[in-house]
Amino acid sequence: MTTYRFVIALFCLLAASCTLEVKNGETDVEWGSVSCLEDEDLDDFDEAATCFDRFPRPLDTYVSWEHGGVKRWASGTGTVTFGADDRSVQSLGPGAVLWVGEERDGVMREVRFLASEFGQPRVIHEVSRVEREWDADARAWFAGLVPDVVRHAEVGARQRAARLLREGGAEKLLVGFRELATAPPRAIYLDALLSVDELDADQVAAALEACDGELGRSGMQHTIYRRLAERFPDSARMHAALMDCSERTMLSQDRFDAQRALLGVWRKGALQDAALEQRWIAACAGCEPKAWTDLLLELVACAPGGDRSRIAALHAARDVPSSVLRSSVVERCAKLTPASDELLLAVVEEIVDLESSARREALLLELLEREKLTAPVLDATGDAAKGLESPAAERRVLSRLSDVRAAS
Length: 408
Description:
The strands form 2 sheets. The chain has an 8-stranded antiparallel beta sheet, covered by helices on one side. The protein is of the alpha+beta class. It has a domain at about 5-150. It has helices spanning about 5-15, 45-50, 135-150, 155-180, 185-195, 200-210, 220-230, 235-245, 250-265, 275-285, 290-300, 305-315, 325-335, 340-350, 355-365, 375-385, 390-405, and strands at about 20-25, 25-30, 60-65, 70-75, 80, 90, 95-105, 105-115, 120-125, 130. A hairpin with a 6-residue loop joins strand 5 and strand 6. It is built from 17 helices and 10 strands.
């Protein structure tokens, strides 16, 4: 193997972005952005070295899916417009490329549409890498493939979404959205949807409820969540649907970003719903422990439901698998001013359950520095002090408690 071929193949590997595998019913889906496409493992370095000869420019998107033993794929770049019947290619913008194909029973069949200067695209049809005529049989095969391509592929999605809006408004676009099978085109359709001046929250929420996957590429989904939540700030159904979608995100960071985006909208006080808040807290549990704790701390800080929200965060922190992180939520609530008796009693209850006796003592003493503590809170603090492992620690807390009672 020559050094030249090795370098070219290595470049192909580095150019390919990380792909994300998701399950969609019985379909395995893989998508990503690539600069060079060839056999997935690139084991054949001779094939990889000639990859650039097959396309006039790097390809932006790639998706492959498999169902019933048949593998299909679609890739492309530039402006690709499918026909209104979703069975043909209507046009390609300058420099655009569309590449689709399938492998069935060991036979690979593919077609490449390359934009030309003469209006009509150049069409290259191959069967097992042997170029064949673009005849009626080939066109019929492609026509049967296109409906599956538009369900999975990002290429052509923006143009198709715009066409659906022109033909039937938001209602027809939402019908198209329900048919999509992968995340990237969903984000494109939702972006187009949000350009419509008048939208029905229940219609959009119903489409999200029917969605069985993610709403966009990893690292970008939170923008969709924020825009939808801001567009429908008073729709509990919409926010619930968004949380259901966030629970289907595969990466903890994506879930964190989505939940944070929703909380950012709630911070403005647009929606105060206890049941919805509990669902949000449950969805947060899918994040990594540090991210989970950060979200609970943000809930404590903005508290759209007041002390109800803070107490809910305290109770949720019990399940955080780190005593240090759990303690940070308790400490944040203990320092809040003003605070109701209900919140302070919940804080004392959580202090009792902390693993570190030294931390329990410190928080109880800190609590006793607050002004105007009521009898129920003082009684609860005294009971908590009796649970400290160190007799000396217990004496210190009870002594300070006695001083507070005397002063009051």
